[in-house]
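Subgroup meeting minutes
Present: P.N., E.W., G.H.
Scribe: E.W.

1. P.N. recapped why we're keeping a running log of single-chain structure predictions: easier to compare across weeks, and new members can see raw inputs and outputs side by side.
2. G.H. added today's entry (509 aa).
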Amino acid sequence: MSRDPELEWTGLFAGIDRAGGQLKPQIRQALLQAMAARRLAPGTRLPSGRQLAGLLGVARITVVEVYQQLVDEGLLTARERSGIYVAPQEAAPAGLAAALPPQEGWEARFAVRPGRTPHFSKPVDWQRYRFPFLSSELDPGLFPAAEWREAVKIASSAGAIQSWSVDRIDEDDPALIEQLCQQVLPRRGIWAEPAEVMITLGAQQALYLILRLFAGRQTVVGMEEPGYPDLRRMARLQTDRLRRLAVDAEGAVPDAAFAGCELVLLTPGHQSPTSAVMSAERRQAVLRLARARDIILVEDEYDTDLFPEGVRPPPLRALDATRRVIHVGSFSKTLSPGLRLGFVVAPPPVIAELRALRRLIMRHPPGNNQRSLACFIGLGHYRSHLRRVGRVLAERARLMDRLLPAYLPGCRTQRGVGASSVWVTAPSGVSARQLAEIARGQGVLIEPGEFFYDEPGQGLGNFRLGFSSIGTERIEPGLAGLGRALETLRPEIRAARQGLPEIVAGWPG
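Output recorded in log:
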C-alpha cells in the first residue's frame, strides 16, 4: 500500500497548537526539528507555500514568511521554477570519537551521595493527571500570561536590554531590588534597604547558600520534624550535628533541643508540611530564646503572600529588633515555580558574604528574568495577580474544608489559616504510600508524609493534599477518587461514606 504524502507532511506538524497563536514560530520549529532528526534530509523538496498552508489550515503568507526566513538563513534553498528544498547540512567535525560504553566505577569517586536518600518525587508529567493535589505547584491556569507578556516586552526594549544584559558579577537588577523593598516586603510588614536584599534562584538556593555560609561540620543546626526533605539533605551536606526539633499545633517548639542549636531553620508562616501557623506568643518565645542563646534564625516564608484568610502574625523578621532573623521568600508559590526567583533579607554583612558565595556558583540569576519581574511588579500586575489568586484559593480552601470529612471519613485533617495544603492523618493501619500508589491509578496525586520525617517509621499514615495546583472544578471528583482508593484499604469506610448527605459538585463555600 502506498503512503499518503499529505498525511506524512501533516504528521511533521502534529504538535502545532493553533489555539495558542504564534503559528510562524511553531511551523519554523517543526521544520527545524524534522531537519535535525533527518526526517527531512538534505535535498528534500518541500510542499509549496499554498500546499502546506492548505494542509495545515493556515494562511499562505504564514508559510511563505517561514520559508523565506529559513532561505535567508541558508537552511532552505529556493530553486527557480522548481521549488523549496532542504539545504545541504554542515559536515560533522572530523575526528569525533565513536560513542563508548559508560565507564564503571564512578560511584567510588563520589565525595557525597545526595541521590541515595529516599524521597517523594512528583511525576514530571504531573499536569497529565486529572487530580494533582500537589502543594509545590501553582495551577497553570492562574498564571497571568497577558500581563507577564507585557512585562517581558518592556524588559526586551533596546534600553532595557542594555541594562540587564551586562555581567553584573555579584549584583542584582537594581529595579527588582527596588520593587522588592517598596512593594513586596512591606506587604509582609518588613522594611529593608537595598543592601539587605539579594535575589536567588528560588528559596531553595537561598537556603543552600545560608547553610553553606553558616554551618560547619560541628555546627548544631536545628530543623523541624517533620520538615522540608530537601532542606534536611542540604543541612546534612554541611553538618554532622543536625538536630530534630519538635512541632506541635503552633509550629516549632522552643524547648531544650531548640535552645542547644546555633542555627535554626523554621517555617513559621505555614509549617512544612503540617501547615501549622506559629502563634504570636510562640513567635515571641522563639525570639526571646534566640536572643538569650545567640541563635541565628532562618525563616522560610515560602507562601506568605498566597491568599488572605483570617489574621496571621507578622513574620519573625518584622518582629526582630536585634536583626538575628534571616528571611527567605520566593515567587515560586505565588507566580510560577518555573520562574525560579526568590530572595533573602538579612543584615548587610550577611548579604555581602552571600553575594560573594553566590558569585562562586553562578554569579547572579538571569538578568532578563529579574528585569521582567521588576516590570511585572512595577506595573501593578503582581498585586492584581495576588488578589485574583487569593479569591480562587479562598474558594478552594472552603471547598476542601467542607468536602474532606465527607469523602475521607475517619481521617484527621489540619490546615493552618491561609494555607493552600491540608495535612491528613489516615485511619490506623493505612499506609499513605500505598494509598498514593492506588490513587495514582485513578489519576489522583498526593504526597505521602513519611518523606517529610527524618526518623524512620514516622509519618507512615500521613499525607499532604495541596490545592493550589488543581482546578476548582476538579477538587470534588478528585477527593471522590481518593476516597475510593481509601476504601480499597479500609472497606468499612464505604458504609461511613454512604451514611453522609450527598455533596453537590461545585459547592460555593
